[in-house]
Specification:
383 residues, alpha/beta, TIM Barrel, Arc Repressor Mutant, subunit A, nine-stranded mixed β-sheet, 43% helix
């Protein structure tokens, strides 16, 4: 059933002011306790979602590069025992580019990690301080060099559309980033998420986000530069050489089944949505009491699954195949996508239809959230 496994490590050395992920700062972490709990959560999930070899494993966070390499190796060995690994499995770990963590890259590669995603976020010290990062630019680039020596596939993240950022500044930074030769880049516009320190600063007037028109210009510039460099966008914020796309994230966006273990992890298996306890201590208590960290699991109706598949699939450059989704969920194509709205936005150049396939164009991608609300019928979204 499950072909993808997500393992969440919730701990960070500091909370970044833009971050709304499930990350927590603790003075100490008992690695032995966490190993036992993660293994128990994994075993329980495999009982419910086993039977098919894994094609991807993804360690996310938090900061998984803070995990002891021996713990990573133990978790991978157990995952392989429980599910088996498909040939050529992709095993990704998110990493902070500090010198301390980079020193573990060789051991992590020996543990089985074959793809790493580095949170560089910016290439200059002033911006890194603004973003609350603990590394400086030189340390980050040194970690990138180490990563490229130890892992077959390397990606890194950058955040753009920052307050006051000009097109010339972003063009110079992105051009430099493309020159490092990685096969994948995740390029995110700075978003002010509720509950973050940046959101508080915006409310108080201490921070003024870049305006929408300027951000849209930077988005278009990003697409042009990455396309010219041979790393076209395959998702709204992700760019890769052919065959170097993140297979794990493609499993999400193509609405395939995946298991999620660890605090706050989400999963989809056989039409059931799972959510683990978010707070690390609550998750540990749940695992100790019942052998699993699930806070909620519920069956999803076909219409709700179809809505999720549409919302995820239209993020992709490949778009969605309406006929295939209609067949999968037992619905009519017009129930998945409003035909009148589709024609309207196709005439405006924001959407393209080729046979049964619906694709949001480059012009439409900056308006994706609004387009999704228009194209996917309200009755489906309310399912």
């Amino acid at each position: 059933m499950a072909r993808a496994l997500y393992i969440h490590w919730p701990f960070c050395l500091a909370k970044c002011p833009y971050c709304d992920f499930n990350s927590h700062v603790r003075e100490s972490v008992d690695a032995g306790l966490w190993e036992r709990a993660l293994l128990a959560d994994m075993r329980r999930e495999a009982e419910l979602a086993g039977g098919e070899a894994l094609t991807t494993v993804f360690f996310g966070g938090g900061t998984p590069s803070l995990m002891p390499p021996a713990l990573v190796a133990r978790l991978l060995a157990e995952a392989e025992r429980l599910w088996a690994f498909a040939p050529g499995i992709e095993i990704t770990l998110e990493a902070n580019p500090s010198s301390v963590e980079a020193a573990n890259f060789a051991a992590l590669a020996n543990a089985g990690i074959n793809r790493v995603s580095l949170g560089l976020q910016a290439l200059d010290d002033e911006t890194l301080r603004f973003l609350g990062r603990l590394h400086d630019a030189a340390e980050g680039l040194a970690a990138l060099d180490v990563a490229q020596r130890h892992f077959a596939r390397v990606s890194f993240d950058l955040i753009y559309a920052r307050p006051g950022q000009s097109a010339a500044q972003w063009q110079a930074e992105l051009t430099r980033a493309l020159g490092f030769g990685t096969g994948h880049l995740s390029l995110y516009q700075l978003t002010i998420e509720p509950g973050t320190r940046f959101a508080t600063m915006v409310r108080s007037g201490a921070l003024a986000p870049l305006d929408d028109d300027a951000a849209a210009d930077l988005f278009a510039l990003t697409r042009d530069l990455t396309e010219a460099a041979g790393l076209p966008a395959y998702e709204i914020s992700n760019h890769a050489r052919p065959d170097e796309e993140s297979r794990h994230n493609l499993a999400y966006w193509r609405y395939q089944d995946y298991c999620g273990i660890g605090p706050g992890a989400h999963g989809r298996r056989g039409g059931t949505a799972t959510v683990r306890h978010r707070k690390p201590e609550n998750w540990l208590d749940a695992v100790a009491a019942s052998g699993q960290g699930i806070a909620e699991q519920r069956s999803l109706g076909m219409r709700e699954q179809a809505a999720e598949a549409m919302l995820m699939g239209l993020r992709l450059r490949e778009g969605v195949d309406l006929a295939a989704l209609a067949d999968r969920f037992g619905l009519g194509a017009s129930e998945l996508c409003d035909p009148a709205k589709l024609d309207l936005y196709a005439r405006q150049g924001l959407v393209r239809r080729s046979g049964d396939r619906i694709v949001v164009t480059d012009a439409g991608m900056p308006l994706l959230d609004a387009l999704l609300g228009e194209l996917v019928p309200a009755a489906l979204l309310a399912a």
